[in-house]
Write a structure and sequence with these properties.
single chain; about 130 residues; mainly alpha; Glutathione S-transferase Yfyf (Class Pi), Chain A, domain 2; globular
Length: about 130
């Protein structure tokens, strides 16, 4: 779902898709926020960081790419996210194998974010074309 709220490679906007893929990530953030609100330890599962936290972290960090302007409306998600980033090793892991682009995307203007989305969409289409020719 994340990223599907961005325009396609041609920069086209399809109203149904935009509506669907902007509202679905928001729903998922609400579900996660409600879960974390009742978590006694502040993690997805149990009393420590697990693979569930690690797997969900990048998705949460890409909130702008998911069509959200901020995660402030999800205070438990925001607290969980920044608590994990403050843990030893998370910054290093977040930037492996290369720099994490999602936090930077969250600070981009809508126009800059659109350019990234079009670029990534074009990259995917080019790769699919090369695969079809192989």
């Amino acid at each position: 779902m994340a990223g599907d709220s961005s325009p396609g490679p041609a920069g086209e906007h399809i109203p149904y898709a935009l509506n669907r893929y902007v509202h679905e990530p928001r729903r998922l953030y609400r579900v996660l926020n409600a879960h974390l609100a009742t978590s006694p330890f502040g993690y997805i599962i149990g009393d420590r960081v697990t693979i569930a936290d690690i797997a969900i972290l990048p998705w949460v960090g890409a909130y702008r790419f998911s069509g959200l302007s901020s995660i402030d409306e999800f205070p438990h998600v925001k607290k969980w996210y920044y608590t994990l980033l403050a843990r030893p090793g998370f910054e290093e892991g977040r930037n492996a194998p290369g720099p994490d682009r999602y936090l930077k995307m969250n600070d981009m203007s809508d126009e800059e974010l659109k350019e990234v989305a079009v670029s990534l969409g074009t990259w995917v289409l080019d790769a699919m074309k090369r695969d079809a020719e192989a």
